[in-house]
Amino acid sequence: MAEDESKRDSLQMNRKGCQINNGFVQNEDNLEQDPDPGISQDNPRHSTLGIDGSQEPNFQGIQPYAGMPKEVLFQFSGQACYRLPREILFWLTIASVLVLIGATVAIIVISPKCLDWWQEGPMYQIYPRSFKDSDKDGNGDLKGIQDKLDYIATLNVKTIWITSFYKSSLKDFRYGIEDFREIDPIFGTMKDFENLVAAIHDKGIKLIIDFIPNHTSDKHTWFQLSRTRVGKYTDYYIWHDCTHEDGTTTPPNNWLSVYGNSSWHFDEVRNQCYFHQFMKEQPDLNFRNPDVQEEIKEIIQFWLAKGVDGFSFDAVKFLLEATHLRDEIQVNKTQIPGTVTHYSELYHDFTTTQVGMHNIVQGFRQIMDQYSREPACFHSSQA
Question: What is the rounded distance in angstroms from the CA atom of residue 269 to the CA atom of residue 222?
Answer without folding.
Answer: 14
